[in-house]
Design goal:
The chain has 2 domains: about 1-55; about 90-204, no CATH class. About 50% of the residues lie in helices and about 20% in strands. The protein has 6 helices and 5 strands; from the N terminus they run αααααβββββα. Strands 3-2-1-4-5 form a 5-stranded antiparallel sheet. The radius of gyration is 20 Å and the shape is globular.
C-alpha cells in the first residue's frame, strides 16, 4: 500500500510541476519557476526510474523474481557474515555506529572529497523496511593517488540495486569528509557503474 501511495505522490509531483512551469511561462508569476522545477525534477526522476524498471522487468512474475533474488542474496550474505565470527556483544555498538553514520550520509556525499574503499566486513544493523536495509560496514578507505588505506566503521542503507555490490572485497566509490576522515559515505550510483581497472577485488 505504501509503495503505491509513494508512486501516486511522485506522479502527482510531476504533473503539478509541469502545470506550474506552464503557468510561469505565461508570465506574471516568476515565483512559480523554482517550485515547478523542483516538483518536476522530483517526479520526473522517480517516473524515469519506474519506467526503466518496468521495461526491464515487464511482467509481475519477473519483478517478483527480481525482488526475491535480491532479498535472498542479501539475507544469505548477512547470515554468512554473522556466522563467520561476528561477536554478539558487539552488535549493539555496531548498530549505533551504523545508524549515526547513515544520518550524516547526505552531507558527506554533498561536501566530501573523492575516494575509494574496499569492504572488509558488513553485518545487519537491524533497521530498515521493505525497500532498504541498514548495514554496518568496515571499510579500508583510500583518498588521493598514493595515500595509504585506513579503516573506517560506518553504516549504509542498502536497496535491491546496491545489495549486489555489498560483499567483502568489493571496491566502492566513496566521499570522505575533509574535516573528519572517519566520516565516509558510499556513492552507490557511481559504485554500481564502476569497475576499477576492469576488475572486482572480490574475485581475487
Amino acid at each position: 500500500m505504501v509503495k503505491y501511495l509513494v508512486r501516486a505522490v511522485m506522479v502527482a509531483d510531476l504533473m503539478v510541476g509541469l502545470v506550474l512551469l506552464a503557468l510561469a511561462a505565461q508570465g506574471g508569476r516568476p515565483w512559480l519557476w523554482p517550485i515547478g522545477a523542483v516538483l518536476t525534477l522530483m517526479g520526473g526522476v522517480f517516473t524515469e526510474e519506474w519506467i526503466r524498471f518496468r521495461v526491464k522487468y515487464p511482467t509481475a512474475e519477473a519483478r517478483e523474481a527480481y525482488r526475491d533474488r535480491a532479498i535472498e542474496q542479501y539475507q544469505q550474505r548477512i547470515e554468512a557474515l554473522n556466522a563467520g565470527g561476528s561477536q554478539t556483544e558487539g552488535r549493539a555498538e555496531r548498530n549505533k555506529i551504523a545508524h549515526l553514520a547513515a544520518k550524516d550520509r547526505a552531507r558527506v556525499l554533498r561536501t566530501g572529497v573523492d575516494g575509494t574503499a574496499v569492504i572488509v566486513f558488513l553485518a545487519d544493523a537491524n533497521r530498515g523496511n521493505e525497500f532498504e536495509q541498514l548495514v554496518y560496514l568496515e571499510l579500508d578507505v583510500r583518498t588521493g593517488g598514493g595515500s595509504a588505506p585506513y579503516r573506517v566503521r560506518t553504516g549504509e542503507y542498502l536497496t535491491a540495486a546496491s545489495t549486489g555490490s555489498a560483499v567483502p572485497g568489493r571496491e566502492l566509490v566513496v566521499k570522505v569528509d575533509p574535516a573528519d576522515p572517519q566520516r565516509v559515505a558510499v556513492d552507490w550510483e557511481k559504485s554500481l557503474r564502476w569497475a576499477p581497472g576492469g576488475r572486482d577485488t572480490s574475485t581475487r
